[in-house]
Amino acid sequence: MRKLTSIAASALLAFAGLTAAAGAPAQAAGDLEYVALGDSYASGVGAGHYDTASGDCKRSAVGYPGLSAAAHGDYTLKDVSCSGATIADVRANQLPAVTSGTDLVTLTVGGNDAQFTSVVQACLTQSDSYCETATRWMSSYATHQMVTELAGLYKEIEDRAPQARIIVLGYPQALSTTGTCPVIDLSAAKRADMNAFADALAEGTRAAAAQASVTFVDMREPFEGHGACGSDPWINDLSNASEVFHPNLAGYLAGYSDQLNKAWG
Question: What pLDDT shows up at residue 24?
């Protein structure tokens, strides 16, 4: 794995390139269209550098859509991802951005449908047994009902953009099994249960992608050894309540964007 210092330096260079590109004339944009859909993991929550015009959606120039679009100059990015989005929100508010002229669609969604925030809050504030119950309950949803709901959404994207490539990026495990979390530490049992919940989200997303025959990118292996509260985190810990357990800048660059670029080709 690359050292964090080199990752951060690369991220700053990428951000500078994005800033310069933002001021370029419209005709300099690529001929191909890339539409980014999804929730806070897609919008870049945790990376900083949010577009003030995106408001509560908190779209970041250094989330994985912006970083990967910057590496593919023949594409013009249309980013409609939004923090807090559910599957129904993507269908109602973001899907209209996808048209027959769209060439690439990326998507990360499902965590909010599985009550990610409520489960995290339960594990942070309640007992080990309560955390276990909450994570198991929502893990069952993620590997059953969510699969059907996601597969239906992927099919709708395919119907709107028959020629587009569709790349679905999953969720990583959020927590390191070792190390101390600031503010509120978590027991080994809670960490295991929360990571099992992340596994359920990833496996449910994988199953839905297989049903719809779209590309799935599993983020668990790239983030291995880089969980929150560990020695080399790519996930934000409890120090910032609004970004807790979301990737940091290194996570979006060396994790999400790197894997998307490999799938993109």
Answer: 30
Q: What is the pLDDT of residue 29?
A: 62
**Cβ contacts of 127 within 8 Å, gap of 6 or more:** none
How many helices, marked H, and strands, marked E, lie in the chain? Answer: 10, 5
Q: Name, in order, each residue with C-beta under 8 angstroms of 177's C-beta and a sequence gap of 6 or more.
A: 188, 191, 192, 195, 227, 230
Taking the C-alpha atoms of residue 183 and residue 133, their distance in angstroms, rounded to an integer, is 23
How many residues appear in the chain?
265
- The closest alpha carbon to 198, from 264, 123, 148, belongs to 123
d(CA 251, CA 11): 10
Nearest C-alpha neighbor of 156 from the set 96, 204, 216, 203? 96
β-bridge mates for residue 104, sequence order: 34, 165
By annotation, the residues acting in catalysis are: 40, 246
251: DSSP letter:
I
| pTM for the predicted model, two decimal places | 0.90
Structure tokens given for 29: 């944009």
Which amino acid type is present at position 265? G
Classify residue 241 by burial, with Cβ atoms within 10 Å: 0-12, 13-18, 19+. exposed
Strand order in the sheet with 165-169: 75-79, 32-38, 104-108, 165-169, 215-217
Residue 6 clears pLDDT 80, i.e. is over it: no
Which regions of 186-238 does DSSP assign to beta strands (E)?
215-217
139 and 205 in contact (C-beta within 8 Å)? no
